[in-house]
């Protein structure tokens, strides 16, 4: 259906709409219904408006959300996923169950906008009178959605999109490209699962088993059977990766980077059924990790849903769906869904009571599902039972151990995930019952620390070390905790959690409230000193929403904070030699300019001194080429000093200096604002026994990541505000997120150098691998990209590296290194030409392509980058790796697409000078994977003229809104003129080895 627009001329400016009403015919084939009201809302009322969720239609799993955008756009949108945040007290919200609405019950939705004498705009949703009200779990069929004083309507429109366009829908102009349909997520969608609707949501990367892990037991690395399961639990973003391609609404997301330490990953949400997104399945399988979906039953709704599943019925039908399968109908559906989407099994989370007489049904159901998964998905499939329901009465009674009352579920499943409230004696109790299957018990650990032994969070290692004293396996729940709760400090928190670093954080408030060292509720410390004004006129003011801040005046103003380290390390019990293990210093501050002109100047200066007053390290923000200028928004600023920046280990005090001034030189305090200062010191785990046990990565052990040729990576983490192609920016200052395009390889060991996914520059995508630090005279550092296990069948391999070196070029040797199982090393030095240069946020990238001969019988055990300083002095390192490929001689490069075709649909005419069109593109591409075990995918990049449209792994794409200019012709009659120019679309193929095909173009008529 094309958009229907209410003529704006019928709406008086700045007046409420009088008794106007619009009815939208309901189409059961509808994918999305959007109703928009452009309104003017006075500033004083904007803070009172909150997102509301008011209506749910179960059959197509849609809900309507009411929200405000930029303070003046009120939009109702029927969408397929539950909103992440809403206010229960001010919300009319129906849970997603089977007994609400069905297409047979009504044939229209009615949106009413009414203006009251008091200028209160009431927006109501009303279903057609033919609705059977018994199907609504509410006393009325009309619901008040929103009330707000002084809302003035300016325009009204709606759009309804069909379910039947080419898949996937990729509206670039609309800035978001979602899955065409939400994967099965409840009993109804499970029962009606049809693979034809989801062909674009399937990974092409199969699961390939890998070698057993090495774990630490008694301080020694041994090969064992211990398994590790991770369940990320990301409640605020469970559906962020349902988007198939090119989400232009976000530039960050959760990434799990420790695949080499785990065996099984559970993609978890609170939907009845959670199918892992294709991107996550791809990433898990690339690293040899199994990935499970989740089937969960919670609360009273879950109790009813579980009973229906075990009976093989749907509520509105009230009868068995399949007479032949009966109660096993849903087991077959779960098996079909796992096989189709290529994930490896399920976590069964029954957290609602089931009737006692259904316990035996549940056991039969699980036993049958386990058998069918082995038949259809493979012998590696995994059915994991979460410790919840017990067999004696069917009640949820968490045991935190394997006991007689839950052992029947352990017996019919592959693995058993215990609750988190265990104590050490529970482990021994489980061992007695498990017999030779003790490694099939995952002992649960909640990162939040809710009843967890050891306390969770940064003390999770306590519980893991206790588990490792016994032949049991490990489960980590909520590893996304740090992403969810402290994103600004994510890198620091992840290093502290996974690598055992000890982080001490100090709050540096504008006003000293504590005269001695005090620990706050969030674990940080305060009372370690105070700010001293040493130049200019500074003033402490308070923002109602942001808190206290320091503001500068018309002259340069300076203040200093001094932190003595010796008394602090004693008070905190860090150990006498802790400063020798100081890995990193991070100073964080929020900065903002003061109106009317906010481009105020500032500088941050951090210095470290020893006890003799000698400066060991410093960082001056004005040393960089970029002028430090504040903005109208609060901006996060961070200064980082690492161990390699220190010229000694006898650190004694830290001095932090803030300077700022008003760019307008006005009298009064209209200069730079500083707020929320924080200082974090990171200490490495050291060499002590206690330090080593904090390192969770060492406790879990390293698995061998399977590599299958060709191997390729751009170190692209596929999220950011800039997109590169061949080293050039093709999308700048615009959000981009596409986990399907992710090829980032997180080094398992980076030695003394620091490695990060740098978004400053890239060769392809949004990031590359940045290596930074210093090397002493004749010092070398090996960065391990993968611990692996593969050979070179042809005895020869072509290695191509794209890199850029900005510092230390003359005395730095860089090599790609492969170590074989006999500890032999195979080096391929990168031949350097000239130093790379930065030009307008772009690097000059150099390519090194050479062949390396390796005996085909040699087993490669690690893939590394080797950095060596050949000089007699300290050398600073700053290197970017934009691409690394390992290609066998027998590899056949990809070919260009063929038969590029399109279909256009004209949008409503808005001007005689231009028109909008939806363009549906399709093409043909013949691709034969180099190997049946390949972990690489072919992708297609699209441009419209010079505008980059996005990346897809499909042979279909929809450009939702193409603007076409026309020559002016008889504007009074509203006629369109002839086209000023024709629009061209270009498609380029990127192959398994990252080679590029010739572009193919089509001209849109």
Could you please describe the fold and organization of this structure?
With 1005 residues, the chain is mostly beta strands. It has 5 domains: 4-162, no CATH class; 202-238 and 256-498, Alpha-Beta Barrel (TIM Barrel); 502-684, Sandwich (Jelly Rolls); 709-887, Galactose-binding domain-like (Jelly Rolls, Sandwich), CATH 2.60.120; 898-1004, Immunoglobulins (Immunoglobulin-like), CATH 2.60.40. Helices cover 12% and strands 37% of the residues. The chain contains 14 helices and 55 strands. The strands form 13 sheets. Strands 13-14-16-17-18-19-20-21 form an 8-stranded parallel barrel, surrounded by 5 helices. Strand 23 and strand 24 (525-526) form a beta hairpin. Helix 5 packs parallel to helix 6 (359-376). The longest helix has 18 residues, at 359-376. The protein is globular. The chain starts with a strand and ends with a strand. The model is unreliable at 1-180, 216-221, 622-626 and 687-692 (pLDDT under 50). It comes from Euplotes crassus. GO terms for molecular function: mannosyl-glycoprotein endo-beta-N-acetylglucosaminidase activity.
């Amino acid at each position: 259906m094309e958009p229907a627009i209410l003529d704006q001329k019928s709406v008086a400016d700045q007046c409420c709409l009088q008794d106007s009403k619009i009815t939208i015919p309901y189409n059961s084939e509808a994918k999305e219904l959007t109703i928009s009201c452009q309104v003017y809302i006075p500033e004083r009322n904007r803070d009172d408006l909150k997102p509301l969720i008011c209506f749910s239609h179960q059959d197509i799993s849609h809900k309507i959300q009411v929200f405000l955008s930029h303070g003046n756009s009120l939009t109702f949108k029927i969408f397929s996923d539950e909103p992440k945040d809403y206010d229960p007290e001010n919300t009319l919200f129906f849970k997603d169950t089977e007994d609400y609405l069905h297409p047979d019950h009504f044939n229209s939705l009615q949106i009413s906008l009414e203006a009251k004498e008091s200028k209160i705009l009431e927006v109501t949703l009303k279903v057609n009178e033919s609705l059977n009200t018994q199907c609504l779990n509410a006393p009325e069929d009309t619901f008040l959605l929103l009330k707000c004083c002084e809302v003035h309507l300016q325009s009204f429109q709606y759009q309804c999109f069909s379910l039947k366009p080419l898949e996937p829908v990729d509206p670039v102009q609309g800035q978001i490209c979602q899955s065409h349909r939400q994967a099965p997520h409840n009993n109804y969608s499970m029962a009606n699962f049809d693979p034809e609707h989801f062909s674009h949501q399937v990974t092409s990367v199969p699961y390939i088993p890998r070698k057993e892990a090495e774990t630490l037991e008694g301080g020694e690395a041994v090969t064992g059977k211990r398994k590790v399961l991770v369940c990320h639990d990301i409640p605020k973003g469970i559906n962020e990766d349902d988007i198939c391609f090119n989400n232009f609404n976000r530039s960050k997301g959760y990434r799990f980077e420790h695949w080499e330490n785990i065996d099984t990953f559970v993609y978890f949400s609170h939907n009845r059924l959670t199918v892992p997104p294709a991107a996550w399945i791809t990433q898990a399988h690339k690293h040899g990790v199994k990935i499970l979906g989740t089937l969960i039953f919670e609360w009273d709704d879950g109790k009813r849903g579980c009973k229906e599943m075990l009976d093989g019925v749907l509520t509105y039908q009230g009868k068995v769906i399949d007479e032949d399968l009966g109660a096993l109908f849903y087991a077959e559906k779960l098996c079909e869904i796992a096989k189709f989407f290529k994930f490896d099994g399920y976590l069964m989370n029954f957290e609602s009571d089931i009737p006692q007489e259904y316990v035996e049904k549940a056991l039969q159901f699980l036993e049958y599902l386990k058998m069918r998964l082995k038949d259809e998905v493979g012998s590696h499939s995994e059915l994991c039972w979460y410790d919840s329901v017990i067999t004696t009465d069917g009640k949820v009674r968490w045991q935190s151990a394997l006991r007689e009352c839950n052992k029947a579920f352990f017996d019919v499943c592959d693995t058993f995930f215990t609750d988190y409230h265990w104590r050490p004696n529970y482990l021994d109790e489980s061992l007695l019952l498990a017999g030779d299957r003790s490694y099939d018990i995952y002992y649960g650990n909640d990162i939040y620390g809710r009843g967890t032994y050891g306390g969770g969070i940064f003390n999770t290692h306590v519980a893991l070390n206790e588990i490792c004293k016994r032949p049991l396996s490990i489960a980590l729940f909520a590893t996304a905790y740090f992403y969810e709760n402290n994103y600004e400090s994510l890198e620091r928190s992840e290093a502290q959690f996974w690598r055992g670093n000890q982080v001490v954080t100090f709050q540096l408030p504008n006003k000293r409230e504590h005269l001695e060292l005090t620990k706050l509720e969030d674990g940080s410390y305060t009372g370690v000193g105070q700010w001293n004004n040493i130049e200019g006129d500074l003033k402490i003011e308070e923002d109602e929403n942001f808190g206290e801040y320091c503001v500068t005046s018309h002259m340069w103003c300076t203040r200093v904070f001094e932190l003595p380290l010796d008394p602090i390390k004693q008070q905190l019990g860090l150990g006498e030699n802790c400063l020798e293990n100081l890995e990193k210093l991070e100073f964080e501050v929020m900065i903002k300019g003061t109106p009317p002109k906010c481009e105020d100047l500032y500088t941050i200066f951090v210095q470290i001194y020893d006890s003799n007053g000698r400066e060991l390290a410093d960082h001056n923000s004005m040393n960089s080429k970029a002028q430090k200028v504040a903005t109208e928004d609060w901006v996060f600023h961070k200064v980082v000093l690492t161990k390699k920046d220190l010229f000694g280990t006898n650190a004694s005090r830290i001095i932090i200096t803030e300077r700022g001034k008003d760019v307008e030189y006005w009298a009064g305090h209209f200069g730079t604002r500083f707020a929320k200062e924080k200082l974090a010191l990171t200490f490495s785990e050291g060499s002590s026994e206690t330090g080593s046990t904090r390192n969770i990565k060492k406790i879990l052990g390293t698995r061998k990541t399977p590599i299958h040729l060709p191997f390729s990576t751009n170190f692209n983490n596929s999220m950011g505000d800039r997109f590169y192609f061949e080293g050039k920016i093709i999308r700048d200052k615009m959000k981009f997120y596409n986990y399907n395009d992710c090829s980032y390889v997180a080094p398992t060991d980076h030695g003394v150098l620091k490695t990060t996914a740098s978004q400053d520059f890239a060769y392809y995508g949004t990031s590359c691998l940045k290596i930074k630090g210093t090397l002493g005279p004749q010092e070398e550092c090996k960065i391990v990209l993968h611990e692996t296990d593969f050979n070179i069948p042809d005895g020869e391999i072509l290695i191509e590296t794209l890199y850029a070196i900005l510092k230390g070029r003359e005395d730095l040797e860089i090599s790609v290194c492969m170590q074989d199982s006999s500890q032999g090393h195979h080096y391929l030095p990168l031949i350097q030409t000239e130093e790379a240069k930065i030009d307008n946020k772009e690097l000059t990238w150099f390519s090194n392509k050479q062949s390396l001969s390796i005996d085909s019988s040699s087993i490669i055990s690690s893939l590394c980058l080797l950095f060596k300083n050949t000089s007699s002095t300290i050398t600073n390192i700053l290197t970017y790796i934009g691409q690394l490929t390992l290609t066998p001689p027998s590899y056949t490069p990809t070919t260009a697409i063929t038969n590029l075709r399109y279909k256009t649909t004209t949008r409503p005419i808005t001007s005689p000078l231009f028109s909008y069109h939806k363009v549906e593109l399709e093409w043909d591409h013949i691709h034969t994977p180099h190997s049946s075990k390949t972990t690489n995918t072919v992708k297609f990049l699209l441009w419209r003229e010079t505008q980059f449209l996005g990346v897809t792994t499909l042979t279909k794409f929809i450009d939702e809104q193409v603007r076409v200019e026309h020559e002016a012709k008889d504007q009074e009659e509203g006629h369109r003129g002839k086209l000023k120019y024709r629009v061209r679309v270009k498609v380029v193929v990127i192959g398994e080895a990252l080679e590029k095909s010739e572009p193919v173009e089509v001209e849109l008529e």
